[in-house]
Amino acid sequence: MNRRSGILEFAVLGLLRESPMHGYELRKRLNTSLGVFRAFSYGTLYPCLKTLVVNGWLTEESGSASEDVVAAPLAGRRAKIVYRLTAEGKERFEELLSQTGPDAYEDEHFAARFAFFGQTSRDVRMRVLEGRRSRLEERLEKMRASLARTRERLDDYTLELQRHGMESVEREVRWLNELIESERAGRDLRGSAADGSTRNSTSGETGGLPRHRDSTRPDPSDDTTT
Q1: Which residues, 6 or more positions from 47, have their beta carbon under 8 angstroms from its beta carbon?
Q2: CB 30, CB 37: distance < 8 Å
Q3: Where do the record's region annotations for Disordered lie (predicted)?
Q4: Rounded CA gap, 34 and 140, in Å?
Q5: What is the mean pLDDT of the chain?
Q6: Which of 32, 45, 95, 134 is the most interior residue, by most CB within 10 Å?
Q7: Phi/psi zone of residue 94: left (φ > 0), alpha (ψ -120 to 50 degrees), beta?
Q8: Torsion of CA 65, 70, 74, 75, to 10 degrees
Q9: Closest Cα to residue 219, out of 34, 71, 92?
């Protein structure tokens, strides 16, 4: 399975863990909740769903009459099928959720992993965040070295584009530093101390999102490579 298919598999299993969905609803959630999948089509989604069914991770069920009336005009006959996560599918998602290898740090996979941080244990979140930060710091060092070598040969607009790319990476590194600090301090989504927080994570450990002083938090799905 290639990297792109692996990300889609992970996201589909994660969304269906929340509730069963028909194909149109699932594609809509992928587009709206996980920005990395904005360009995905039914031609990409349905082969993935069929594979997950064959693997025993999903089951196909007939949708209710009310669902068919709404979904059929938009997605055709396929929308009548509702996909439900099996016990084996839940185990598969838990397995994928616990993985912290290099793929978890890449732009697209990190965005999908981050979207399910509420279901991820704190130790895994920390490894993914620290891995992502290390990857971006390496990227930033290479960008700075490249800019230093080529600065004199670049026109003003190309130079500005290079600077913009570096600023995007620097901004995400600062954001990751805040997240990692919050995770280490045990703060929850509202930035409260662990001993006074209201825990609501399905993983049994609260998330670590810090308070943000402005609205410039980077989109983890942004491709900051120049």
Answers
A1: none
A2: yes
A3: 186-226
A4: 25
A5: 79
A6: 45
A7: alpha
A8: -30
A9: 34
Q: Which tens digits make up the pLDDT trace of 31-79?
A: 887 766 666 667 788 899 999 999 999 999 986 644 444 444 444 454 4
Contact 26, 16 (CB under 8 A): yes
Please state, in angstroms and rounded to a whole number, the distance separating the CA atoms of residues 156 and 54.
Answer: 54
Query: For 218, which DSSP code?
Result: P
Q: Residue 78 is encoded by which pair of tokens?
A: 């396929």
Closest CA to 7 of 128, 103, 117, 134: 103
Residue holding tokens 């409260």? Answer: 192
Q: In whole angstroms, what is the distance from residue 109 CA to residue 7 CA? A: 6
Measure CA of the first residue to CA of the last residue in the chain; give whole Å. 27
- At 170 the pLDDT is 97
User: Any idea which residue has 């244990």 for tokens?
Assistant: 121
Q: Give pLDDT tens digits for 127-167.
A: 999 999 999 999 999 999 999 988 888 899 999 999 999 99
| Local structure of 60: helix, strand or coil | strand
CA distance 31 to 34: 6
Cα–Cα dist 193/171, whole Å? 25
pTM: 0.73
SS3 label, residue 81: strand
Residue with tokens 């016990």: 87
The tokens 């960008």 sit on which residue?
143
